[in-house]
Amino acid sequence: MYYRNVADMNRIIIKRLCILPRDFDLIVGIPRSGMLPANLLALYLSKPFTDIDSFRNGHIYKAGERGQFIDVKKFKKILVVDDSIASGSAMNKAKEQIKEVGEDFEISFCAVYVIPGKEKMVDYYFEVVPLPRYFQWNILNHTILEKSCFDIDGVLCVDPTEEQNDDGPKYIDFILNAAPLYIPTSQIGTLVTSRLEKYRKETETWLKKNNVKYKKLVMLDLPDKEARQKANNHASHKSTTYKSSEYALFFESSLNQAIEINHITKKPVFCTETFEMIYNDQSVIYNLKSGKYFPGLKNLALKLRNKLRNR
């Protein structure tokens, strides 16, 4: 599994920005995912920026304004950008759309990420990333969700405050009215939560109200909050379900629990606290004082070994 977040995209664009000529007149993004890297490139290259449909209609984005209608023929050299190429269908469609504007342009095509073997589909690319791969900006709408487990609090909705978490009327009100966070459009395999089984009805009511599609809901079968706190088995409870071979990914809000779930199951965990993927060969250390996370001891040891070998 290969994962890239927005920070990764930004880093690779900055690192390899030198591959792009500086004489482009306009950056054109392929909606929807291509708009993010196109915007970054336009900012770093100090070029105007738009999307394909707007370009075809003579419309660009202008700093400080919503937009500006212009004569597109004033732009001769165009860079068309997408976030990634796998099958290449989106890029091929974009090439056909661009042709409709006319042949008076010098058009180049660019993707931040390409899979091996697709490098020649574009004039410029920033990184080769094999399949299976997942991106922060579309993982919550990926087909893998059907083979995934999801936590609820901190993922689908906000966490309760200390005051709300009274195991009584305030908590019931929270469950019924919690503000949503990340609601996928695709069906989720199984929801696995440390909420108590006695709150199943209220939880199902909220899920239905917020149009959360899922196959199963697994809750913690303990009598009350005190018993749950005494058991302190959030990660192991979630791992029990996730261990099943039918699941490929777990979405967890807490970084500490994400690390523990990964350690128990040896399977990847996506953490919404940091928007990082926790791999079974890439543990991390989280510094609570600085609020930053660092490579774990295993990675540090491997880096040290490789450094010594290269001396």
Per CATH, what is the topology of the largest domain?
A: Rossmann fold
User: Mean pLDDT, nearest integer?
Assistant: 88
> In DSSP terms, counting alpha (H) and pi (I) runs of 4 or more, how many helices?
10
List the helices and strands in order.
EHEHEHEEEHEEEEHEHEHHEHEEEEH
Q: In terms of structural class, how would the helical and strand content be classed?
A: alpha/beta
**CATH architecture of the largest domain, please?**
3-Layer(aba) Sandwich
CATH classification, class level of the largest domain: Alpha Beta
- Helix content percent band: 25-40%
Distance between the termini: 31 Å
Major sheet description: 6 strands, mixed
Unreliable stretches: 283-293, 297-306
Strand content: 15-25%
Number of domains: 2
What radius of gyration results from the CA coordinates? 23 Å
What is the 3D form? elongated
Instruction: Give the number of DSSP strands.
Output: 17
Describe the structure.
This protein is of the alpha/beta class and 311 residues long. The protein folds into two domains: 2-134, Rossmann fold (3-Layer(aba) Sandwich), CATH 3.40.50.2020; 139-280, 3-Layer(aba) Sandwich (Rossmann fold). The chain is built from ten helices and 17 strands. It is elongated and about 70 Å long. It starts with a strand and ends with a helix. Mean pLDDT is 88; it is low at 283-293 and 297-306.
